[in-house]
Design brief:
Elements (H helix, E strand, L loop, with lengths): L5 E4 L4 H6 L5 E6 L4 H16 L5 E6 L4 H6 L7 E6 L2 E7 L4 H9 L3
Parallel strand pairs: 1-3, 2-3
Antiparallel strand pairs: 2-4, 4-5
Length: about 110
């Protein structure tokens, strides 16, 4: 489940919440059956709380939004992508530590 600061992205809100976001966006491409994705969830929630107001952070279920996952060449999950001004600028594939993700986020704040 998502924490209070973690958004749920989908095809319905993608343009508004990711492409047209005023702040950089971290998208966690995940699926419920993915063990490493479930391990990432608490890390993503901690970052969402710490970066609130500076970053928009959310999750996109690739099973429910396969066309978006394909559009951004997400071949394995978890994949965490940084979006700014409508473009994916950076991504990490696989489980990552909170410190590694924070370093990546700090480059775009």
């Amino acid at each position: 489940m998502s924490g209070a600061n973690v958004k749920t992205f989908s095809a319905a809100n993608w343009d508004q919440d990711v492409i047209n976001s005023k702040t950089p966006v971290l998208v966690d491409f995940w699926a419920p059956w993915c063990g490493p994705c479930r391990m990432m969830a608490p890390v993503v929630e901690q970052l969402a709380a710490e970066y609130a107001g500076r970053f928009s952070i959310g999750k996109l279920n690739v099973d429910e939004n396969s066309s978006l996952a394909g559009q951004f060449s997400v071949m394995s999950i978890p994949t965490l992508g940084i979006f700014k001004n409508g473009k994916m600028l950076d991504k990490i594939i696989g489980f990552s530590s909170k410190n590694d993700l924070a370093k990546m986020l700090d480059k775009y704040v």
